[in-house]
Amino acid sequence: MNQTPYKLVIGLEVHVQLSTRTKLFCGCPTAFGASPNTQTCPVCLGHPGALPVMNEQAIALAIRTGLALNCEIASVTKWDRKSYFYPDLPKGYQISQFDQPICGPGYLDFADPENEGETLRVRLIRAHLEEDAGKSMHDEGAGKADSQIDLNRTGTPLLEIVSEPDLNSPEAAKAYLIELRLLLTYLGVSDCNMQEGSLRADANVNLHIAQGDTTVATPIVEVKNLNSFRAVERALTYESQRQYSQWQKDGRDITQAPKQTRGWDDAAGVTVAQREKEESSDYRYFPDPDLVPLHIEPRQLEAARQALGDLPAALRERLRYAGLKEYDANVIVSQGRSMVDYFEQAVASGAPAKRVSSWIQQDVMRTLNEQEISIEEFSISALQLAELLQAIEKGDIDNSRGKDVFQYCLQHPEADLDSAKAALGIEAVDQGELEALCRELLAENPKIVAQVKEGNVKGLGALIGAARKKNPNADPKQVRELCHQLILADA
Amino acid sequence: MAACCRKLSIMNIEEQSAVDLGRRIASGEVSSREVTQHYLDRIAEREPAVAAFTNLADDAVTTAEQADQQIASGQLRSPLAGVPVSIKDLLCTASLPTTCGSRMLREFHAPYTATAVQKLLDAGLVVVGKTNMDEFAMGGSTETGDGGATHNPWDRQRTAGGSSGGAAAALAAGMVPLSIGSDTGGSVRQPAAFCGVCGLKPTYGRISRYGLVAFASSLDQIGTLAHYVEDLAASLQIMAGHDPRDSTSLPDPTTEYLAHLDQPVQGLKVGVIREHIDNPGLDADIRDGVIRAQQALQELGAEIVEVHLPHTSHAVPTYYVIAPSEASGNLSRYDGVHYGFRQLGDSGAAAPLDAMISRSRSQGFGPEVKRRIMLGTFALSAGYYDAYYKKALQVRRLIAQDYGAAFEQVDLLLGPVTPTPAFGLGEKLDDPVQMYLQDLYTVGANLAGIPALSLPAGFNEQGLPLAIQLQGPALGEARLLSVAYQLQQQHFFEPRIAECS
């Protein structure tokens, strides 16, 4: 962390859109991008007489997430109405959970981005379910003041994950969010698409400033509209500096100013004060009489626990145990479960872990990027890759010819290692052939020979290039060693 | 029931129960069209004096003709197929406006039909119109609706009760044989009592609330009104059952209500609620009606015992915290944004938003609705929640426990429905507390979620209907209906239609 005269204190509220097929309280689809107000019904439109009916799938996804976040899962949970007037909230209240959230205290561990090998822990206060509101679009251009409302999103299930203020740097906040998103992706509970708003974060921020023996806390600011990891990092950096200079100006502490809401303006790179409510909001929470309390049975919890599967933290451990460094394990795990499977299959088939990891991170991932496909769609199977890497490991093929095979296999999905080798003319070069080739090279390059004799071995590299022109199958390492030996022997 | 074998003449259609009409329509003795036309004629004749309806169905005769065809071809087998019915204007109907008696929804057409109404339509009943009510069902006099007051057919200067006043008055005036209402604190039973007809509020959750515009969600229940107990049973049979669209609806009933009307009363224990009878505010004629019911039940072989509901005096205050609290939430959706009444500013602009919402709600709602929204908003506010709403929930539990304890001793409870017979129009409008105290005997059943039934008990000297109330344990509708049916068979009361002169 940068040396600052204060300690930054950050808590995050993360809204995760759960990937249910239908909305939280009605049968309307949750798909993104439909024409405005086409995914609605009397229930999500808040029509008179319409009643909510709970979506069981949303409950299952919330439980799954809560378990993965080490949360206590409530045995009884209920729904409450949160009342406020806003045009994109058609009922005049949001169905949420007030005092009995489905998920109680938990935590998430993640790698400390500022101290290699260290782990940070964010304690979670709770995670509760609620329905999303609609979307207001304000068209204030050309002197107009039209507002349009799209209620397609209304009623989409959200899980709000609220952390303790355990984060102390913008980098840590970002790292926590990245780890949370990875976990949610592994769990399959959300598509976590930040552009489409499937993962939204609000941050509560203030500073603890050392003043002699005591500490002064600055007023808490809620920063909204953090729509990317980068925005989180930038906004928090900006906001901490802003609060510090504000405090230097007015000296006001947490007891002297109310909590303020500021929005992050990504283009301008600043946080902007949002309209203060005239009075503190009173949401008048009360239990929603249209919905019955929900009892979660231990058996259901146990089944959900069994079905959790391997989570990123455990997989990273496993990959490190297989021989990878923390960094490499993280890169592969971050690619998702299918990439981990691909890695593990290749290793299980006998290819060395480090070599698999390095080929995945370079050749495989580059190809996936270029072709814009996922590992599931990748044409070279883990077994094929393993066979190739084993051949390289044994020295049957050199690394560079290995890349040729890789490229050939990409273009010829039906090819196996032998047919690729045959097509590329790859064959073993015997010792006699190699020696003849080296002698020929030395004869053609007396200058280099002279340099090497004087102890300058740099020129050997040029010999390798020349050797491969004569015979692409010549192993560069062997060419180098043999030439060196021959020159020295001659001397 | 003694079968009447002669061909029905148009003149005595209204003397028939809905079940009888259904039977005669099914047998081809009379057509749904003829029956429907009869009631439409009655409506044309009497509606101007009674004002029971907010909207009439233009297509009732066509619907009746369709019903006749379907009955003839054997597609409709319900005992009430082809029978006309009115629907309280609080239930959504895709074919008719749903105003809830409010300026706020004067122009509102629901895009769907309430589950209960759809079940009636599927059973081949013919909806003739939507009935008047207090605005958003908040009231006990059917005077506060957007369309004005409904008159009591027995005395036009008096109220029909409320909030399902239009439903009860339409029956009393012979304009329909069956009415569907809703009961949150007595809104089916009290108007039934004032108008001299039978009214049933079933167990909470017995009939799906989907499409019943919410007043107080934990108390609201659709109910049914008719001249004959058998008609309550038959209509309940059609509407009752689980609805996947209403999480609070109960599983399908296991009893055929209509088939169990003859269950013996012999040996039943009926409790007379001491706190209800001893109330000094109880009208002497009504008290006498309860005593006569006691005797009639004894003659049928029931044992009468005295029971106590010690928290009775807290029922009205408890109700008037819980119901407005839920209402304040339920009515938040009427903000002038998406549908319903919207009041633009003087300049013709909607903006600013807060002002538009405030104007629309100030002008779209009447005084009683606004009073209750404010009461509820206050009761749920930070700092007051524990003292009002939470406390009320605790007392509600005690009231439910009172009923639970009573039903360990007895099968049914007997008492009055209202403290007085129908009061005068305008009499209590300026005194909301007096109006609320009308609910003393009825709100308990809503708070406890139990079924309750209002039965006529003759008339007082002024010719105003009197009534008694029977209450049963949750899901005890079959027993309630059978006891009421046998009281009717014993001529404890005779269905009568007002002259409306």
Give the gist of this structure.
The complex is a heterodimer of chains A (491) and B (501). Chain A is of the alpha+beta class and 491 residues long.
Description of the structure:
The complex is a heterodimer of chains A (491) and B (501). In chain A, 37% of the residues are buried. The longest helix of chain A has 22 residues. The model of chain A has no long low-confidence stretch (mean pLDDT 91). Chain A folds into three domains: 294 residues, no CATH class; 112 residues, no CATH class; 60 residues. Helix content of chain A is 40%, strand content 19%. Chain A has 15 helices and 16 strands. In chain A, a hairpin with a 6-residue loop joins strand 7 and strand 8. In chain A, the strands form four sheets. In chain A, strands 1, 5, 6, 9, 10, 11, 12, 13 and 14 form a nine-stranded mixed β-sheet that branches. A three-stranded antiparallel β-sheet of chain A has the order 4-3-15, with no helix packed on it. With 501 residues, chain B is an alpha/beta fold. Chain B has a domain of 312 residues: Amidase signature (AS) domain (Amidase signature (AS) enzymes, Alpha-Beta Complex). Chain B is 38% helix and 14% strand. Chain B has 16 helices and 13 strands. An eleven-stranded mixed β-sheet of chain B has the order 1-3-2-6-8-7-12-13-11-9-10, with helices on both faces. A two-stranded antiparallel ribbon of chain B has the order 4-5. In chain B, helix 7 packs antiparallel against helix 16. Chain B is globular and about 70 Å long. The chains are: A alpha+beta (491), B alpha/beta (501). Chains A and B meet through loops of A and helix 10 and helix 11 of B.
